[in-house]
Amino acid sequence: MIDYRNYIGIIGGGISGLTLGCALLKQGIPAIIFEKMPEETSHGAAISLSSNALRLLDRLDIYVDLKDQSFIHSAASIQGPHREISSFQTPEVLTTRRQTLMSLLYSRYKNLGGEIFHHHDLASFDAVKCEATFTNENKFTLKHLAACDGIRSSIRDIFFAANQYPKYSGYSAWRGIGKSSLQKIHFALGPDSHIVSYPINKEGDVSFVAVRKEDYQFKESWKEEGSISDLFDDFSAYDSKIFPALEDSVTLYKWGIYIRPPLKSMITNNITLLGDAAHPMVPFLGQGACMAIEDSYSFAMACKERMTNLVNAQVAYDYVRSKRTKKIQQLSMMQGKVYHLKNPILVAARNAAMRYTNIPGNDLKRIHNYNAHEVMRIYLASGNL
Ligand SMILES: Cc1cc2nc3c(=O)[nH]c(=O)nc-3n(C[C@H](O)[C@H](O)[C@H](O)COP(=O)(O)OP(=O)(O)OC[C@H]3O[C@@H](n4cnc5c(N)ncnc54)[C@H](O)[C@@H]3O)c2cc1C
Question: Which H helix or E strand runs over 87?
Answer without folding.
Answer: strand 84-97
